[in-house]
Design goal:
- The chain is mainly alpha-helical and 254 residues long.
- The chain has two domains: 131 residues, no CATH class; 110 residues, no CATH class.
- Helix content is 54%, strand content 6%.
- The strands form two sheets. A two-stranded antiparallel ribbon has the order 1-2. A two-stranded antiparallel ribbon has the order 3-4.
- Helix 8 packs antiparallel against helix 9 and helix 9 packs parallel to helix 11.
């Protein structure tokens, strides 16, 4: 057997993990239930390998996966790896396994991975867009956007994508599921966002105001003729002064 140094073992191990998953997805049976059973068998086998170690080295762990694979956050579990590699079949089958007192927190963590750590270029896996179906499934099972940067990040990245249908659908899904309609970046990317996204964001702002929610400091509430309250952008001091000057000048000439 060819000698492999301890420092090289983790990279080789994880490369084999990813290769096995890739083969199952692309060269194995097409039926989802069979793919699922094979992925579960791989997960069980890899767990044993990680517990016992390889070639006499220290036991492997999910935490020592290469940075190129794990991205911005160390891998915690096979489910985490599945989210990272967008293994929809495995994720849908095991969402209900995420339970307990920290269920919402755990699901929200995976949602953050799906929305902010989806770019992956590791061996044969190349993803540059988040998976709509995975994000939707996590939200349906109780994941929230509270307390993390998932929405601002997604809005900032996808807002630059122009009118890509997938981007618009995902942003609208997030708005329907609790994303902040007052986020400043909605104004920053206003020209690049799909009109349906902007329409929904406006409706969500109006709904929030009717429910007594206060906008961020970048927005203010003004009363309109029909008594409804709407959120509008703050005017700069210069704009306010210019507006007052124009009004006084117009009044003096009347």
């Amino acid at each position: 057997m060819e000698y492999v140094s301890v420092t090289e073992e983790p990279a080789m191990f994880w490369s084999r993990v990813v290769d096995c998953v890739w083969i199952i997805l692309n060269h194995g049976p097409k039926a989802n239930e069979i793919q699922l059973r094979l992925l579960e068998e791989i997960k069980a086998t890899f767990d044993v390998i990680m517990t016992r170690g390889i070639l006499g080295s220290e036991p492997m762990s999910y935490g020592n996966c290469p940075a190129k694979l794990c991205g911005m956050t160390k891998i915690r579990s096979f489910f985490h790896l599945a989210v990272r590699l967008q293994l929809g079949t495995y994720i849908m089958a095991h969402l209900n396994d995420v339970r307990g007192p920290n269920q919402i927190e755990e699901l929200s963590f995976y949602l953050q991975i799906a929305l902010t750590n989806y770019v992956c270029e590791y061996d044969s896996f190349v993803y540059t867009q988040p998976s709509f179906s995975i994000v939707e499934a996590l939200l349906q099972h109780g994941a929230t956007l509270d307390g993390n940067n998932s929405w601002p990040y997604a809005l900032g990245i996808l807002g630059k994508s122009g009118h890509l249908e997938q981007s618009s659908d995902l942003l609208m899904l997030l708005l329907r599921c609790g994303a902040d309609p007052f986020d400043d970046q909605l104004r920053v990317f206003e020209k690049g966002l799909d009109s349906e996204v902007l329409k929904l964001a406006k409706a969500k702002r109006e709904e929030a105001i009717r429910n007594g929610r206060r906008p961020k400091s970048a927005w203010k509430i003004v009363a309109v003729e029909n008594g409804q309250q709407l959120a509008v952008k703050f005017q700069s001091k210069w704009s306010q002064l210019r507006s007052r000057f124009s009004s006084s000048k117009g009044g003096g000439g009347g």
